[in-house]
């Protein structure tokens, strides 16, 4: 609009100051005015073209800003997952160290029973929601005494005794996250987290149970529950014999 006003003022200025304007014939004046009108139209088209390009640049800038925001969000999520993974790895290392100490301190000839496993033995796995809620931990780190069955996910106590059992669960916010430690079909302890606005959740729990030889201990999902695991070992199940009774 400002460009149109400038062009019209320029044209009027030319009309009033151009030498010999009063001596021209009507036809010549009409042709001259037509030229000026065409010139103004050309300027208007150029202005529209510039405005269109500006709108395109604005749209491109908006998309670029949105992309930057998404990259920033994803980086923050990755940093959070790295910290959670470091915490899980620390807890797993502590459990393995404890198992090693118990092995070293075990009396000669006494039963040596310990196991540790994670859910995924390759790639990534999302378990649940499902009708068969039993969790089968396929990646076996240790299984001294062969009490744990990686085909069923069940640890069967070889002898009467007090057993230390622990587990960790990891999942995303779309479903209930957590699992239940079962003994002979009866719930013992659990982890649990409702769907929430945060991206992911992890938790762990542990207990000392008195088991008789042949008692079965295993993990189950909550109703509508889901857990996640990959080769980083986010979802795990471990246990060992503290001492026979």
TrEMBL record:
Domain C1q, residue spans: 108-245
Compartment(s) of residence: Secreted
Database matches in InterPro entries: C1q_dom, Cerebellin_Synaptic_Org, Tumour_necrosis_fac-like_dom
Q: Which residues form a coiled coil?
A: 33-105
**Stretch forming the signal peptide:** 1-22
User: SUPFAM superfamilies, from UniProt?
Assistant: TNF-like
**Alphabetical UniProt keywords:** Coiled coil, Secreted, Signal
The protein's name: C1q domain-containing protein
Which organism's genome codes for this protein?
A: Champsocephalus esox (pike icefish)
């Amino acid at each position: 609009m400002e460009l149109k006003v400038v062009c019209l003022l320029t044209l009027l200025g030319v009309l009033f100051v151009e030498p010999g304007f009063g001596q021209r014939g009507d036809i010549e004046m009409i042709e001259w005015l037509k030229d000026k009108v065409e010139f103004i139209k050309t300027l208007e088209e150029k202005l529209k073209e510039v405005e269109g390009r500006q709108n395109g640049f604005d749209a491109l800038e908006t998309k670029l800003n949105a992309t930057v925001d998404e990259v920033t969000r994803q980086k923050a999520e990755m940093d959070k997952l790295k910290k959670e993974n470091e915490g899980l790895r620390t807890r797993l290392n502590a459990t393995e160290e404890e198992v090693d100490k118990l092995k070293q301190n075990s009396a000669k000839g006494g039963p040596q029973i310990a196991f540790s496993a994670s859910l995924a033995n390759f790639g990534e796995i999302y378990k649940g929601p499902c009708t068969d809620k039993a969790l089968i931990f396929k990646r076996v780190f240790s299984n001294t005494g062969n009490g744990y069955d990686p085909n069923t996910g069940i640890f069967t106590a070889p002898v009467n005794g007090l057993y230390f059992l622990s587990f960790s669960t990891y999942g995303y916010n779309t479903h209930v996250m957590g699992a239940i430690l079962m003994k002979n079909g009866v719930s013992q302890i659990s982890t649990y987290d409702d769907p929430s606005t945060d991206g992911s959740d992890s938790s762990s729990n542990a207990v000392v149970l008195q088991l008789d030889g042949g008692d079965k201990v295993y993990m189950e999902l909550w109703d509508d529950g889901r857990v996640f695991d990959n080769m980083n070992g986010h979802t795990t199940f471990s246990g060992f014999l503290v001492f026979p009774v």
